[in-house]
Design goal:
mainly alpha, 0% strand
């Protein structure tokens, strides 16, 4: 369990850089994600071919992996759209809503009972986002896109919990990245027709940042997160990912000085979300400690 939490928080730390990189890259959100998934897929193919060989799976099952990869791709499109229409800090805070959606979707799709504590903690996050939405009206479009992004993130995390019981982490990562790229390839012509891009080919600096985004913040972070998900519940993974805004927002304050443009609603909302993260972390620690004490005392 300790190793799983270390893997999870390493992935979260890497994920905290994605917002910064998303603003640095000048491509629109659709093309940005298309290139991100392309480079990530190529990197994974090289990595798996050298170490393990190309993983194979049954036809019906790889279709499921491709479908979840499509959800991952759409999640990223909405996430970077939120950054373009608002800023890095707003987009990362909205991502915190993933805990609320997971508290509802995981029981619905897995058949287990809804945990009222998870719902209450999720609602606290939604209250924090509402305060930002209410007071910082210039960011409302970005907030809506960010909340949709968090809903899609909750979906693929819940689905991945089941898929990881059937496939190796390397298989899930490769097929989802490749599948997401394929889905976006099919959708991109329609997307670009509706939202024309200034340029289709990355600049030299865009290419460099895309490599960092793809290989470190995607391939490595994705693998670490999926490994952690084998031992940790989807809700805990998603709620722990609320630390991503902490890392990302601090970076945005330092790099882009976004603190100069955020109102009091943002800080009130962010304080509530941070409190939720602390409460959930304390809750998980107490449950784990109680379980360890029972094992030591010979109780089951």
């Amino acid at each position: 369990m300790k190793k799983a939490f270390l893997q999870l928080h390493a992935a979260i730390f890497l994920a905290g850089f994605t917002g910064i990189l998303g603003r640095l890259i000048t491509l629109n959100e659709g093309l940005l994600v298309w290139y991100r998934m392309l480079f990530s897929t190529v990197g994974l193919l090289i990595l798996t071919a050298v170490s393990l060989g190309i993983p194979r799976t049954e036809k019906g099952r790889w279709l499921h992996l491709v479908g979840v990869g499509g959800i991952v791709g759409l999640h990223w499109v909405f996430f970077y759209g939120s950054i373009k229409y608002a800023n890095v800090s707003i987009s990362l805070v909205c991502f915190s809503a993933v805990g609320f959606f997971t508290a509802l979707l995981d029981p619905l799709l897995s058949g287990r009972r809804i945990n009222p504590v998870e719902v209450i903690l999720g609602l606290m996050v939604m209250l924090g986002i509402y305060l930002i939405f209410h007071f910082d009206r210039q960011y409302q479009t970005g907030i809506i896109l960010g909340v949709i992004s968090s809903l899609l993130a909750a979906l693929f995390t819940v689905f991945n919990k089941s898929l990881l019981q059937q496939h190796a982490t390397s298989t899930v990562t490769l097929y989802e990245m490749g599948g997401g790229w394929l889905v976006l390839t099919l959708l991109l012509p329609f997307y670009l027709f509706r939202f024309p891009a200034d340029h289709l080919i990355p600049t030299v600096s865009d290419f460099f940042w895309l490599l960092i985004l793809s290989l470190l913040c995607t391939v490595l972070a994705f693998r670490l997160s999926l490994d952690a998900l084998k031992k940790i519940s989807p809700f805990t993974v998603n709620l722990s990912y609320n630390l991503e805004p902490v890392y990302g927002i601090l970076l945005a304050f330092v790099v882009y000085h976004e603190n100069k443009y955020l109102g009091k609603g943002f800080y009130f909302g962010f304080a509530i979300i941070l409190l939720t993260v602390i409460l959930q972390s304390l809750r998980v620690w107490l449950v784990h400690r109680k379980s360890n004490l029972k094992v030591k005392s010979g109780l089951k």
